[in-house]
Amino acid sequence: MKVTVENKKGLNKDIKVFIDKKTMNSYMDEKYEEIKKTVNLKGFRPGKVPKEILKRQFGQAIFSEVLDKVLKDTSVKALEENKIKPAGQPKLDLKTYGEDKDLEYVMSVTELPKVELKSVENIKYDEYSVKIDANETDKRIKEIAKSQNNFKEVAADVKAVEENLVIFDYKATIDGKDFTGGEGKNTQLILGKDLFIKGFDKQLTGVKKSDEKSVDVTLPENYPQKEYANKKANFICKIIEVKKSEEVKIDDVFAKNLGAKDLADLKALVSKQINDEYKNSLDKLAKTQILKEIENFKVDEIPENLIEEEVKILSQGMTEEDSKKSRKNFEEIAKKRIKVGLILNEFGEQNKIKVTEQEVQAEVQKQLRMMPGQEKMVMEFYQKNPSALASLRGTVYEEKIIDLIKTKAKPSKKEISKEEAEKILKEHQKQDHNHEHDHDHDHDHPEEKKASKSTKIEKKPEPSASKKPSAKKVSKK
User: Fold this and answer.
1) I want to staple 471 with a disulfide (CB 3.0 to 4.6 A). Which of 64, 261, 303, 328 is the partner?
2) 120-133+266-434: in CATH 1.10.3120.10
3) What would the pLDDT profile of 227-255 be if each residue is shown by its tens digit?
4) What does the CA dihedral 54, 55, 61, 62 come to, rounded to 10 degrees?
C-alpha cells in the first residue's frame, strides 16, 4: 500500500491510496478459497468447485465484498499511520478499480484541529457543602411518618367516616346480570380519596363491620371492558373491617421499619439525603463553571462540517425563515460546543479515560429508578435503540472527565445554608433559562463512539465511496 497525503486547505486533506493488482488478486484468491468450502454446485463435490466456475458465477459479488473490506481496512490504516483524526465521515473517490486491476482511490478528509490543553490546575469552580439544620431533618421525618399508613381496627359498632380504611368483598351486576370484573375480594378503600369508582366512597360512609351495603354507580368511561363503559352497575358490598388511621410514633421501631438502625441513625440518613439532593444540583453548577473556563482554551480552527452539523441540530423544528434569522447566533453556540467537546476529548484521551460496560449498566439502572412504574418501557427503549445507549455511554464518559478535572482544579470551598443553596440554584435557573442553548453541552468522543444529538467525532471511519460498484452478497448455500 502506497499512501500520499496532500494538504488542500486548512484542515482539509486528500489522501491518495494505491494498492497494486498483485495484492488485490491475493485478496480475491483468499476469498475464493473461503467460499469454496461452503458453496454447493450441482455436479461438484463440496469444496471441489474450480475457481473459474466460482468466478463466472460469483465474480462480481466476490469482488464487491473484497473491495468493501480493502477500502475499510486500508482507509483506517492510512489515517492511523499518518496520525490523522477525521472530523466526520471521510469520502472516497475511486480512481481505478476492477478485477485483475490496481486499486487507486482518493480519501477526502477534514482533520480534527490540534487542541492546546492548558493546565487544568488553573481552572476555578465553587464547591458547596450544605449545612442541614436539625429542624429541617425533623420536618422531613414527620413528612415520611405522615405518608406511612398506620391503620388500626375500630370497634364493631363504630361507623366509617372520611379518611377511614374500609375493607370489603363485593359482587356487582348490570341490569341484574353478572359481568367481567364484577367481583372482588378484600378490596381496600380510604374514604374521601374517590380512587375506586366516582361516588363509591361516599356511599360507604357510615358502614360498620359485617354490614351489607348496596352501592349504585356508573362505570367509568375507561373501564377495561369497553362494552360496560358508562353503564349503571349495582355493587353489593360485604364489609369485613373498618380501620382508623393513627399517628405514627416516631421512635426507634419506626426507624427500624424504614431500614435504619435506630432513630439517631435515621436522622443521620435523612440529613445526608437532603444534603445530597442539594449537592447534586450544586455539582451541576460546578460543571457549568468548568465548561465555561474550558471555553477559554485555544483551538486553532473549528471544522466547518462539524459547525454545519451542529447548526442543523440547533435548528431542528424551526421554520426555514426562523432558522435563517438565528443562523449567526447558532453558529457561535455551535463553535463553543464543538470547541469544548474537542478539548474534553483530548483531555480524556491523554488521561486514558474509559467507560466500562458495568458503568453504562449502572447509568441505565439510574434511569430506571427515575421512572418508577415504567422500568420495562425504559429498558426496552435502550435495548431497541443502540444509539441511545451509546449516548448514555458518552454522558458517563463526560462525567468521568469532569470528575477528574475537579480533582486537579482549584475549588473554592463554601459551606452554605439550605436557604442560600435554594437562592443560588434559583438564580442559576434564571440565567440558564436566558442562555438555554449555550450550556447544553453534549460532547462525543472517538473512543466511546457516542452517537448522540451533538458533534460526532469518529476515530475509525468506514468511508463511503462515490463510485463504488454495487453487487449482491455471495450466497453460501
Assistant:
1) 64
2) yes
3) 899 999 999 999 999 999 888 889 998 89
4) 80
